[in-house]
Design brief:
There is one protein chain. The chain has 159 residues and is of the alpha/beta class. The protein has a single domain, classed as Rossmann fold, CATH 3.40.50. The chain has five helices and seven strands. The chain has a seven-stranded parallel sheet with strand order 4-3-2-1-5-6-7, sandwiched between helices. The chain is globular, with a radius of gyration of 14 Å. This is TIGR00725 family protein.
């Protein structure tokens, strides 16, 4: 069992929400605990997928009210920390899986990479240096849900 942080936009594209729900089912089926920001979009979709798979999903909420969280969360933790909760999510994860992209998602991916937490990116940000190269550690890029789950399996030692 691993702790897998799933990050992505609160205002997500339908495709990202569909992928996140499928990822949630796959992660639950592998017995992983899923951590997310606990609100809408990718966070709500992954929580729904984990629930569908009878797994455990913990939402680290930005505000003070547990009721603001996705109804699909197993555990809703109001942090009162706003976006600073992203650091808690990243540092509590064995691997971070990003779905899609937003500024908040980019900050979580950057924080994970800067602190040595592996990242798997499904259709997310790609940051390049001025010379066009990929600087420093970079996310493992996945082209599908199956590839993303396989990459997580490889990082955490399989199921």
């Amino acid at each position: 069992m691993a702790y897998v942080g799933v990050v992505g936009p609160g205002s997500a594209r339908a495709r990202d929400e569909q992928d996140a729900r499928e990822l949630g089912r796959g992660l639950a089926g592998r017995g992983h605990v899923v951590l997310c920001g606990g609100l809408g979009g990718v966070m709500d979709a992954v929580a729904a997928g984990v629930r569908d798979g009878d797994g455990v999903v913990v939402g680290l909420l930005p505000g003070n009210d547990r009721a603001d969280g996705s109804p699909h969360l197993t555990v809703a933790l109001p942090t009162g920390m706003g976006e600073m909760r992203n650091a808690l999510l990243v540092r509590s994860s064995d691997v971070v899986l990003s779905v899609g992209g937003s500024w908040g998602t980019l900050s979580e991916v950057a924080l994970a990479l800067r602190t040595g937490v592996p990242v798997v990116a499904l259709d997310g940000w790609r940051v390049l240096a001025a010379d066009g190269s990929e600087p420093g550690p970079t996310p493992v890029r996945a082209g599908s849900v199956a590839e993303a789950l396989a990459a997580v399996d490889e990082i955490v030692g399989g199921t």
